[in-house]
Amino acid sequence: MGPxxxxxxxxxxxxxxxxxxxxxxxxxxxxHLSMRRVAEKIGYSPTAIYLHFRDKTExxxxxCEEAFIKLGDAIASARRTGKDPLDVMKxxxxxxxxxxxxxxxxxxxxxxSPKDKIFRSDESSYEGSAGQRAFEMLSSSVTDCxxxxxxxxxxxxxxxxxxxxxxxxxxxxxxxxxxxxxVEREALIDSVVETTVGGLTA
Length: 202
Prior knowledge:
Layout (H helix, E strand, L loop, with lengths): L12 H16 L6 H8 L3 H5 L5 H24 L5 H18 L1 H9 L17 H18 L8 H21 L8 H14 L4
Helix pairs in contact: 1-2, 1-4, 1-6, 4-5, 4-6, 4-7, 5-6, 5-7, 5-8, 5-9, 7-8, 8-9
């Protein structure tokens, strides 16, 4: 069966391309990802892929941005159920971890794969990105917790990055080391969040 011809009814082609690129990249790495491989995976001609993306660098940028957008949406939705500044923060942290574990391909592309080996410095900008917006939700929670007297006063950026380092650690471990004899997953996640936040309380 040859490549499918692009038609006006293929409205989801762009997303199909992104999904295929993410799967190839995570499973086989940057060197094995090519526009031709993506085209073969979804059954289209390479020409159809180039109509949507200039090259694989542009395609990978889109994969990363999509991952941050999905993560940000999950965090924002969870935060809306919080009852006070500390609860809002915890809900966001739990959402972050659960998103990563439930979406390992998204998480690996966004947070584990080394971006400096994929993009030039001028091709991957933090400013104005979905990743920045996601991190700013954490910084906002830290600011609110300090203002409410829940956290000890301190440098918001340092506290936020400390929290992120902790939850990124448990998320990455659960994704990358599935065969390790972890204790019950939710109990471990709860312990990490409570220990991290507890160390910052006033």
